[in-house]
Task: structure prediction
Amino acid sequence: MKIGIVGTGYVGLPSGVGLASLGYDVICIDKDEAKIQALQNGKVTLYEEGLEELFQKVTKNGKLKFTTSMKEGVCEADVVILAVGTPPHPETKEADMRYIYAAAEELAEYITGYTVVADKSTVPVGTGDAVESIIRKVNPQADFDVISLPEFLREGYAVYDFFNPDRIVVGANTERAADVLKKLYAPFSGKTQMLFVKRKSAETIKYASNAFLAMKIHYINEMANFCEKAGADIHEVALGMGLDKRIGNKFLNAGPGYGGSCFPKDTMAMALMAEKFGADMSLIKRTIEGNRARKKEMAERILNMVSDLENAKIGVLGLAFKNGTDDVRESPAMEIISHLIEKGADVVAFDYKATDNAKKILGDKIKYALKADDVFENTDVVAVLTEWPEFKDLDVEKLGPKMRHKRIIDLRNLFDGQMLKKAGFAYKRIGI
Ligand code: NAD
Result:
């Protein structure tokens, strides 16, 4: 089976590498020439654990190729996967569909033989219908079906999640398309549940899932605020809640608010989509507002730690929106740092993978440390903004004397607060 993937980003690239390692002939297509050139030259363009190794294997054995030519990628493909971005529209904040529609229009004329066009991008309900119409209009003779194939991978675990999905959801309105997908995912048979549903249901499942997870995060953050006031400890509370199988222990880590390229835009798109359909989504709306406010509030908490000082210097641990990725899109760290700078603070930050991407947003407004230890150098407070587990291994006690003031605000609850307090640090965390 031959597969073309349109869009070679955080979804398209790991999917391409994964499918090629299953033995399929995969061509990844992207209009970003620099990206395709880098990939053709053997350079992996984003960080994901385990991606580099598999990438080298499947490019060397010729199973995975890269091109900027839609024709080359589509004309022999049995399945064409759409994995282009659906960012928030700059004005309406709805999912911006121009990349999907453009890709559909561009690929349509190259469809030869029966082809399944599988939409992996997160798209509003009804997009499958629209994509179908676009292709039909450009190429009335084309023999094709459009299906929804929502992607559930977690950034930072993209490779693991490709091979170990919780479920594979296929929204196919024809048996013929469903059969192709059964064949494509045959290697997962018996290992994971394949769910075949109506195309519109599959499109909804993706938004419904992301909005639910975003609400879960916001819920535990609100609960953390409660614990702070009531004298409980959110860590203990989350532990106790998570043992209930109906609740589960995932997404119960209180922190500075959710970020990333999915939750903020998908909750917004879901709320706006619901408005259009006249359905009340007050829980999602409240989550969006609360999460937005939280980031600013977190920045204020950091500033409060140094409100007694003139020209405070703030050290920041973490720039990525979560650990395991170099992605800074909608990262709480980006928003918090921007707020700190606005208030005139002097910031030095470190991240294991995301510094280059952060530089594209923050430029020279902050300084970038080459190693985690350096953010303690002459700073008045160190704020933990990303939950890189490596930060736990820092010898903070030893680094304390390098600081101007021994103050730490741990927005990811990574450090051992008791130990730090004993060592003379002013230490604040979330939810206690
Ligand atoms: P991305 O921005 O990393 O990659 C998209 C790529 O598509 C870019 O390289 C862009 O150049 C390319 N592109 C755009 N238009 C094109 C065209 N006409 N032809 C060829 N290439 C084109 O985006 P992403 O993070 O991979 O997300 C893709 C989709 O998957 C989005 O809808 C997103 O919501 C969804 N999704 C993302 C994740 C995630 O963790 N990032 C998880 C699940 C679902």
